[in-house]
Design goal:
There is one protein chain. The protein is α+β, with helices and mostly antiparallel strands and 173 residues long. It is built from six helices and six strands; from the N terminus they run αβαβαββββααα. The chain is globular.
Length: 173
Amino acid sequence: MNHRFLLVPAAIVMAAAPVAQADQLQSLEEAQQRLFPSAALTPFELRLSSEQFAQLKAEYQVPALRPLFRGWSVAGGGWLYLDQVYGLNDIVTYLVAIGVDGKSCGIEVLTCADGYCDIYTPEWRTKLAGLAHGRWDPERMVPMVSGATLSSVHVAEGVKKILALHARFRTGY
């Protein structure tokens, strides 16, 4: 008896899988105000060359989606960076605040998958404050949330990436 197996490429299966609907938790302007209340912001874009982009990913061992980064200089000192990382089956959009000392001083999540947004509590986000660029391990520095490990790891990796980007290519620390 002949048996035929139909092997469906993984890309087709993944394309047919439902993608989680993203919830908008707050607007960009609301997040900016939470991180730097009443501050004047000056937008900038930072485009890395292909060599710089490869260096960022290799040297700091962080994933990056694209070599173009959007941010704002804060009057009186500080910076904001808008970034995205993959969650479990969505893309998490968040804003990272960096103080004049080059350390993270806050994070605000703008969008994430319905059902996973509750992991980004103020207590969890506080764990990302005070971090500096370097070769630290996101899984050891930031508590992972059971049931949302991928999302919490990826956001922590994203903060590490933004700190490295800021230190290496924006300010030259």
